[in-house]
Amino acid sequence: MKLSYKLFLQVFMLLGIPGLAMASGGGNGNHLDLTSSWVGYASLLIFVVAYGFVMAEEYTHMRKSKPVLLAAGIIWGIIGWVYTSHGFTHAAEIAVRHNILEYAELFLFLLVAMTYINAMEERQVFETLRVKLINAGFSLRQIFWLTGVLSFFISPVADNLTTALLMCAVVMAIGKDNAKFIGLACINIVVAANAGGAFSPFGDITTLMVWQKGIVSFGTFFNLFIPSVVNWIVPAIIMSFAVPKLQPEAGDVDVKLKRGAFVVIGLFLLTICTAVSFHNFLHLPPMMGMMTGLAYLKLFGFYLKKTHKSTKNDPDYDPEKAEERLGDTVAFDVFKNIARAEWDTLMFFYGVILCVGGLGFIGYLAIVSEVMYVSWGATAANVLVGFLSAIVDNIPVMFAVLSMQPDMSMGHWLLVTLTAGVGGSMLSIGSAAGVALMGQARGMYTFGGHMKWMPVIALGYFASIITHFFVNSRFFDNVPL
Length: 481
Prior knowledge:
The protein has helices at about 5-15, 40-55, 55-60, 65-85, 90-120, 125-135, 140-155, 160-175, 180-195, 205-210, 225-240, 260-280, 285-305, 320-325, 335-340, 345-360, 365-375, 380-390, 395-405, 410-420, 430-440, 445-450, 455-470.
């Protein structure tokens, strides 16, 4: 392949179909370069078509896991057939097992986290918080700031999707038919939730991937706190001037926590501590600590079920204990919380990781790594990652960077963690939080409404990058920018 054509292919991959061919599946010496063959082109086309369906989910109503699951199977099927026909019977198997192992660790970690979030939701933790905010009698501007602050600080522990949905429910209940306020507040929530997740190993899938890979230690992530604050606060200040100065009426709905709600919260925090301890002190995968934490919830769930009292026929029933009566209306069942996990999302991660892993095994990883991190430099490449995250999901983009393993300082690894986490805020379709809120606040929070504030959000994006270089300069070790 001529140099000019290869350069064209590189640019086309980076600008036209970002996020492709960025994962290496590992090898054993028996490796075929398929980047210029029909296998490579067909695999690229399959992935592009599949991801096109993912991006069109809002219009096709086809769950995003379906096309990528099929694409992953076809891509690896083609690879396996070609390698087998050349006598390399185990090369593709070793590579795909490597990708599956990475997915398994991510899957088990997320399954436990989602189960705890569902358990807290079932125990009325989030509903109680929502009702208390509605009943407080805040002005629209106060709600704008309060939901932003809560989104920023809840998302590092809970996922940004759950956080955004909770805060959106608050602004819709208070704002009612005020489309301008709801639109502004939703933009603020999306930016705050994405920014809050960027400085915590648990705040976003991308930060979790970086932590589990062992590249950035648990405590080092928190050096991104100030840049993350800047990323949110800059557009929030500017947008706040457009929030209507109105004082809505306070609500009068009362919701109580179910029995054991605080214990579930405590067990979740203990589970996080267990995962961190397993990783930092025992040098075991964090998901082992999370699975151990799932046992905590299962044992407490057993206790709740054995002490379940819900009918007046029970001799120990006490009508004065309203909270306990509410908590015991339905016995706690941990398996129902596991069943309510975001299975479509978990399957989507499988499809993406296997698709990108297959494209990387074909050989496209080396091409993109050479262009981005050698020709352009780490800073330009990592800033670009943020813009790619606004167009496609940040999961394949970050998985690609981790698989490339570019030679970067810790400062640059923190930079790409920041940009991948907050870059999706620039478009409403750039993060799970934004996509979900477009559905929840349909007609009031829209793609076009978000786009109007994109320059302001981009200002916060670049301000956070500059802040990172300033406050975390010690992590760059004089490596060229």
